[in-house]
Amino acid sequence: MIPTIKRIGPFLILVFTVLPFLSIVSRIAANMSFSYILNILAFVLLGIVLIVNTTKIYFPKYLLYYSFFALYTILSDFFIVNKSFDFKYLYSNGLLASVFLIFFIENGKYTEKFVNKYLKFNVLILYIALAVIIIQQVVNSKFLVDPNFVKNYFFANNDTQMRLPSIYSYIGGSITVGLSFLPILGYVIADSLKNAKKDYVILFIMGALFSFLTKYRWIMINYIVLLILIPLYKKLNIIRVLLIVVSIALSLFAGYFLLEKLNVPVDKYLQDRIFETNSGGISHSSAGTRLLAFEIFSELFPQNPLWGKGERLWTYGGGVDTELMWALKGRSSQIHVGYLSLLYTYGIVGAILYILFLIFILKKLYQDALIHKNWGILLAFVGFVLANTTLVQFTINDMGLLIVLAFNNYLLEKETLGNKVLDVV
Questions:
Q1: What pTM value is reported for the model?
Q2: Is 253 buried (19+), middle (13-18) or exposed (0-12) by CB count in 10 A?
Q3: The pLDDT of residue 235
Q4: Cα(103)–Cα(100) distance, rounded to whole angstroms?
């Protein structure tokens, strides 16, 4: 009989696969974010495991540092920010819940039948996500969009700058859009290239369209990173390089004319959103907030360098960081560079713990990729690291990252053990 802890990982992958739709139902039926339900579920599952588990558990080194960081943030909340420890604090603590979720995923038992089945489901959801974002661009920008997302993120003055979330707005904010779609896309492309399939071209085109239509620059950059997969799997010579360049050029032209036919103003979009000529250029617009981040950081960080100021902006019970708000003067909502925000919020001590977590998870995934040859998993987390150069996201709880982490577990076991295991779902 398969131990309970081995069954939880596959159950969670089932939940993550249909998470966009569960989140819609949760919001409409109970007016509640499903992320809270997921956090509570993580605590319940942990309690079950603590009571019934009798088998050996696996706790990778990267998760140890991630756990230390989560514990440090809790101590920071209580001793620096003076938050209250209550039930709402627990179920709204996505960072702590994500520690448990990763723990369950790393200890799950995944079979070939299970992975193949849910991989197909996830590919289908990628196509659904593309179809929905096209509808949002062409027909109705609020189609399947959470009203809370509209309130918080539909701040653009025109359609060419309005960010589009596809099916992911009910799960979370803008970061969720990219970290739900691109990791799975990267895994599927790597699997296609690894097994010499031809559908990787279609997958790359799909990713390009999706990334372009979201209007998030960081998503476009993370998509470009996926192009590294081509030389990783293809032996490149001059002729092949030329063919790839020509194929990309033709695909771009085809995409351009297709979008124009769908009444998507590509030229205006490039000017307004990519180069932001309507607001004085990149250095004077949203990218300018990153320059502002360095200015504010250099001013405020020396006041609390070791332990940090504490999280006062986004989490439950944080109050208001009046000093930061005064320094920003309405020019931005936060220190808009993840690693600077990390240092400002949690100090050198917290930043060291988090950076050690990033180093060890990337090291593990690199070593695993050398064995199972799916480099898309590593690039998913490289994308997460890159995203934090412009965004602020310390929690690993997005469906794309967690699903490919489970697939990494399966591939590694398949290559290293080669033994058959029973289906658990």
A1: 0.88
A2: exposed
A3: 78
A4: 5
